[in-house]
Automatic annotation (TrEMBL):
Keywords: DNA-binding, Transcription, Transcription regulation
Superkingdom of origin: Bacteria
DNA-binding region(s), residue ranges: 41-60
Coiled-coil residue spans: none
Residues annotated as domain HTH tetR-type: 18-78
InterPro entries the UniProt entry points to: Homeodomain-like_sf, HTH-type_TetR-like_transc_reg, HTH_TetR, Tet_transcr_reg_TetR-rel_C_sf, TetR_C
Name of the protein described by the UniProt record: TetR/AcrR family transcriptional regulator C-terminal ligand-binding domain-containing protein
One Pfam family of this chain: TetR_N
Amino acid sequence: MASGDADPGTVRPGGRTARVRTAVLAAAGDALAEGGLAELDLADVARRAEVGKTTVYRRWGTPAGLVADLLADMAEQSLPRTETGTLLGDLRANARLVQRTLADARQGPLFKAVIAAATCDEQTAAALHRFYETRVDEWAPCVQQAVERGELAKGTDTREVIRAVSAPLYYRLLTTATALDEAAADRAAEAAAAAARAGVFTTGGGTVR
């Protein structure tokens, strides 16, 4: 199968094709942050990226297809997990990474737009789910390491712990006008760590004594 026939984001093309993808996704992110999915127009993205309209329409097809590839690229480019040697240290690093992303003048509005679009577009929703599954997969080993160190009970659902870290930060992003700061990130990490130690995320409700 030729790269032009593949689903967006499933290949890593080189040369000019890679440069076009980079330019188009950057332009799409800017447009999405400014106006949301409803205002995302492939011709406008092509103009911003300084590439031909035909190229954009042929490769991405629809605004939802463009958003799906944008999310795939964001997952690929996300920073790897930080390992500090303690559960709280690792969860705090994760929370601060999420906080910096959501507090960013471009990334924050972009995520708001994608989340809003995912409520009414199945392709965008699927892409968003894949993005977060990728990020949870990246950070879940930190929790498993805490289990192996004896910080957490066996049977702890590592993925649920990671989700519990970022959930309060997204809630604040979507429901308040309050700026997300490191204090909010640290509180989210501390709450998730305390709940994990109390056995909230274990199947049997066990705790570490």
